[in-house]
Amino acid sequence: MKCSGLGLLVLVFVLVLLASCSTTRNANVCCANDTECAKLGLPPGSANEYGCSQGFVCQDFYCVAETAPDAAVDAPIDTPSGRCNPNAPFGVPMPMPNVNTQFEDLSVALTYDQLKAYIGHFTATGHVIVTSRRASVESDFPVPTSDPTLAAVTIGFDYKLYIYPTSDDLVVYYRQDITMFAASRLHPDDPFGSGTAVLVDGMQLQPARAMISADSLTLYWSGPSAPLRAATYGSANVFVNGRVATTFDLTDFAISADELTLYYSNYPNPDIFRTIRLSRNVPFDVGIPLANVNTIEADIPLYISPDDCFLYLRAPSVTSNQRNDFWIARRGY
């Protein structure tokens, strides 16, 4: 059956989470008492239904292992290995082959298998979102092309950029004008539906940029010179428990797959910084400039590969000081 009353934000928030809708609850999201459940838009007594399974406890709206919560929450996600020494420094960035244009290159984000890139350009006709697919992680991405699965997302002439996929490539998040949207599909070969505005604690999200974590449970977003923020998954476009994720201001960022390393810059500061935290339950503290990567101009982190071997960034073109290109910094062996 279909949910009703979706025009009202409060009902959207409640109905998406309740079992009376055709959607099902996310088993990893929980509330432990009436106060927490109220933040999810749930009535008193819902903690029994929105509790965690045996051996888990509810912590910050997540179900985490009761015996070792930090180990459960902060254990690194399985990632490809062998492409670098994770303790080695990044080398000097190189231009991204085949992908840079004569116009402004704005954003790039990869699927978790690193075989598909979502790319945003600003061209003579406006903002363009394209994709590129490669056969293996050792290959360069070929020249990007328009993607028919994004037809419902890219239709029209709105300001659309900073597209970011979930690990399974079934949801993409992107900014349209000043509002963040999410577009979904059921299978990786299906077309995406038209986007729906992302809600955080019942309010439309209007960030500079946003990205979804590798486990799809946490949305991170930034604003112009503001602390990084995070919220917990409720559904593809509904998030709760908005909270501060840094003790300092930033504008652009990329977060590692285990969510313990943050690469960031704060325009007009020209450098990319790196900072590490020991737990996802605490904010990031101020970091230090990333060695070898920074130029004298504005360098902007866009995406870090799941194995932490490749940092994709935006920096001035070698052929024009009037535009930016995509660059890749790789760790050594």
Walkthrough of the structure:
Strand 5 and strand 6 form a beta hairpin. The protein folds into two domains: 66 residues, no CATH class; 237 residues, Glycosyl hydrolase domain, family 43 (Tachylectin-2, Chain A). The protein is mainly beta and 333 residues long. The protein starts with 8 loop residues before the first helix and ends with a strand.
The termini sit apart by 55 Å
Strand content: 35-45%
Summarize the main sheet.
6 strands, mixed
Order of helices and strands: HHEEHEEEEHEEEEEEEEEEEEEEEEE
What is the number of helices? 4
Radius of gyration: 20 Å
What top-tier CATH class of the largest domain fits best? Answer: Mainly Beta
Number of strands: 23
Arrangement of strands in the largest sheet: 12-11-16-15-14-13
- CATH homologous superfamily caption of the largest domain: Glycosyl hydrolase domain, family 43
User: How many distinct folded domains?
Assistant: 2
The CATH architecture of the largest domain can be given as: 5 Propeller
CATH topology of the largest domain: Tachylectin-2, Chain A
Specify the overall morphology.
globular
| Structural category | mainly beta
Uncertain runs are 1-24, 67-80
Helix content bin: under 10%
- How confident is the prediction overall: mean pLDDT? 84
